[in-house]
């Protein structure tokens, strides 16, 4: 059974940094895609970043390019999201997601989800 557990959320002032972690347990696939999504109150879920664990390819939403970095530690089955230069509009619940095989932009294509971690950025 696959389980994803996020940690690292919190409250910071604009311009600050946070690092989210997603620890995965269970077998997802020999190569898979791990992604971070976020959802703010009253808004649709948005794909933030994703990484193909088979080769390390990364993808970012335009809104976070240059500020966020997704990375992986295969030995620990953990994916990270380093968030720098945070803005109030980054405030949301952040979810880790996983799917076997290649990456997809669509959250609906991810079969495994964590419980979410809240990120709040104040101005």
Helix content: under 10%
Q: Which regions have little confidence, pLDDT < 50, spanning 5+ residues? A: none
Shape: globular
- Overall structural class, as computed from helix and strand content, comes to mainly beta
- Mean pLDDT value: 94
Beta-strand residue fraction: over 45%
Question: Rg to the nearest angstrom?
Answer: 13 Å
Q: N-to-C SSE series?
A: EEEEEEEEEEE
Concise summary:
By secondary structure, the protein is an all-beta fold.
Protein model, in words:
This protein is about 0% helix and about 50% strand. It is mainly beta. Strands 2, 4, 5, 6, 9, 10 and 11 form a seven-stranded mixed β-sheet that branches. A four-stranded antiparallel β-sheet has the order 1-3-8-7, with no helix packed on it. The model has no long low-confidence stretch (mean pLDDT about 95).
Topology summary:
Blueprint: E1 3-7, E2 10-13, E3 18-25, E4 32-39, E5 46-52, E6 58-60, E7 68-73, E8 78-83, E9 92-100, E10 112-113, E11 117-122
Parallel strand pairs: 2-11
Antiparallel strand pairs: 1-3, 3-8, 4-5, 4-9, 5-6, 7-8, 9-10, 9-11
What are the key terms here?
seven-stranded mixed beta sheet, four-stranded antiparallel beta sheet, 0% helix
């Amino acid at each position: 059974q696959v389980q994803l557990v996020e940690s690292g959320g919190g409250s910071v002032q604009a311009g600050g940094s946070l690092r989210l972690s997603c620890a995965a347990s269970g077998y997802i696939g020999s190569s898979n895609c791990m992604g971070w999504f976020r959802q703010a109150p009253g808004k649709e879920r948005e794909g933030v970043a994703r990484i193909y664990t088979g080769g390390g390819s990364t993808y970012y939403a335009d809104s976070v390019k240059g500020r966020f970095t997704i990375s992986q530690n295969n030995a620990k089955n953990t994916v990270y999201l380093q968030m720098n230069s945070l803005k109030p509009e980054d405030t949301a619940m952040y979810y880790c997601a996983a799917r076997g095989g290649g990456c997809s932009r669509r959250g609906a294509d991810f079969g495994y989800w964590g419980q979410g971690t809240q990120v709040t950025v104040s101005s």
